[in-house]
């Protein structure tokens, strides 16, 4: 259980870099789907809209995970190599989100792909919950002055997204559009 | 409204990383347009010139946004998650600029694309203005000792580029080359 | 032999960035190998499994090198430009690991490629050992209070992976699957 | 002329990130040139050698520029936005080096390309010299206690590479292989 400041900073820094690269690489998927002579102003916007829509959604999803990582790490004061390993597991999920999103983008109305995307989100969310649970258990790596109530609230908040996505996998066996709509519930619950 | 130093540092750091990745990825668009036997010295330079021209312009545009981000954040001392959200919105615009630029590069003489590029710049500029307005309003997140006059000057400066680009959208309905020339006005006004 | 804090921070930071970029770029290799109508849920998971398997393994390998870099640099307190040069050599190995891995992925049952991959790992491991040996020799760049015993333990630990991979090159001349299995020995010895 | 620590740190950080991304992206050029059945161990190494050779050289070139940036910035204590602009110009050169190198790689025996590569190196070297000259002139942005003699030595050292590359452009008009060999002179002079 190390307390060295630089060590913790490097972990946070490394995570930030992986988040930043993943989120910026999303722009590589923006492709000009224009015909050879895109002369009419309106048509350019209409043609580019779906491109940007998926870019914006993915950016917001990874951005929210970054904010959440930022938020939870504010309470973490020490580290051990188990925390580092869990954190790398979380980053592995984050870095693969652009792929899962582009898959959903291309095959959005197929049940298998919707289930796959939801599974990715479940695993990512569980990783975050695990990270927090490990750090907070008996104040293992967090600040002593954090109240038990607050810790529990943070745990609950971490568990909402994976729970909703797990539920949506069940819904997807009936209707995949309904499953996608259920994802909106996360926004409603978290706000 | 948090005051923790590490929290603000991570936001600045994350932004820097996104800027750095976006600006460096511009180089991926450099493509050797050479024929099989580029023997003559002069012709190599002539063929590579347009490649480099668009690279240099995009690099300068993103570089200027980074300088501006650097400049405005020097006055920001605290953060809340609204600021983080606006900042992520700004980064989303920045990360998509290489795409907008390459679009302009390929279809530069089409009015729709010129309008699209100008719209991207308007949104990016407004995001920056919003970030500053939010932070500076009633000294919400900035240093108390900043004079009201200076705050207003910084707000005005942030609003010039989106205003010019918005004007150029109107000009583009008449003539898209004229619209592009009007963008040079930003350099004149800001210097 | 410089002691300036910022100088050492930049070296660590630069290394972290190279690690983070290399590990995140692994996700670019994730390709949707799906047919046009991936309707059945199970088949999507089955088809994506090999993609993810190689992604996860490569992520863990680079992640372990990062943890190890993090661990060894905690003891390094000063730097000189020889250390910087060795560190850049190590980063050169790290940045090329995704290529070596994708090669192994594609031609995994060919002896030449297995030998090539093992050689890459030997060179990377030797670089790390060299870095540590250079820094630790006569307490050149490390903390004085580190016991000689601990230094030796760290040296031994750094030498295990290259030794195992070197051994697997010999094994590969007989059987390349056996060679690959021998790599698992590293996990056993290090845990 | 600002003295704020965070401001200077961000400039250094942003530069490090651009260097790190440029140097890591070099690995994207590593391509498996293997035939369908690379069974013989020796042939795999022989086929991959030229790939790695150009990767290693480019990595060392950018690595040396990073070391040099690291070295010169140790003496810079303040910044103004002219320094920031010159630094962005230098980064623009650095980020385009992988392209210039891959060009040299593909068309290495054509005089025009050799001249182009040497010109890139001249511009990059001059940018670095300009950065240093601007910062050091009348101790504008550097530490006061630096001796004039040391400043001059650092200036001379910065000017050697662009001078050699400029000379090689003249040599290339006669023989491009001789020009390439002359680049080795830099290593000899700097060591």
Structure commentary:
Four copies of one chain form a homotetramer. By secondary structure, chain A is mainly α. Chain A contains six helices and no strands. Chain A has helices at 5-25, 41-73, 81-106, 111-136, 148-172, 176-190. The longest helix of chain A is centred in the first third of the chain and has 33 residues, at 41-73. Chains in contact: A-B, A-C, B-D, C-D. At the A-B interface, helix 1 and helix 2 of A face helix 1, helix 3 and helix 4 of B.
Output the keywords.
homotetramer; 191 residues; mainly alpha; 76% helix; globular
SSE topology sketch:
Four copies of one chain form a homotetramer.
Chain A: H1 5-25, H2 41-73, H3 81-106, H4 111-136, H5 148-172, H6 176-190
Helix pairs in contact in A: 1-2, 1-3, 2-3, 3-4, 4-5, 5-6
Short description:
4 copies of one chain form a homotetramer. By secondary structure, chain A is mostly helical.
Which H/E pattern describes the elements of chain A?
Answer: HHHHHH
User: What is the number of strand segments of chain A?
Assistant: 0
Net shape of chain A: globular
Head-to-tail CA distance between termini of chain A = 35 Å
Strand portion of chain A, in percent?
under 5%
**What is the typical, i.e. mean, pLDDT of chain A?**
86
* Multimeric state: homotetramer
State the largest interface.
Answer: A-B, 38 and 36 residues
Family (chains A, B, C, D): Belongs to the TMEM175 family.
Subcellular location (chains A, B, C, D): Membrane
GO molecular function (chains A, B, C, D): potassium channel activity; proton channel activity
Organism (chains A, B, C, D): Leptolyngbya iicbica LK
């Amino acid at each position: 259980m190390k307390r060295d400041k630089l060590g913790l900073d490097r972990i946070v820094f490394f995570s930030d870099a992986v988040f930043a690269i993943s989120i910026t690489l999303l722009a590589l998927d923006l492709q000009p789907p224009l015909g050879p002579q895109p002369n009419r102003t309106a048509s350019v916007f209409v043609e580019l809209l779906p491109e940007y829509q998926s870019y914006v959604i993915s950016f917001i999803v990874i951005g929210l995970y970054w904010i959440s990582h930022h938020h939870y790490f504010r309470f973490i004061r020490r580290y051990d190599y188990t925390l580092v390993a869990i954190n790398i597991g979380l980053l592995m999920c984050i870095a693969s989100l652009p792929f899962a999103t582009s898959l959903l983008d291309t095959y959005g109305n197929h049940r298998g792909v919707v289930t796959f995307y939801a599974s990715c989100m479940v695993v990512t969310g569980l990783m975050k919950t695990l990270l927090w649970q490990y750090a907070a258990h008996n104040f293992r790596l967090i600040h002593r002055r954090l109240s038990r109530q607050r810790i529990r609230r943070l745990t609950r908040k971490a568990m909402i997204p994976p729970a909703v996505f797990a539920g949506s996998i069940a819904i997807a066996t009936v209707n995949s559009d309904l499953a996608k709509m259920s994802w909106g519930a996360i926004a409603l619950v978290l706000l």
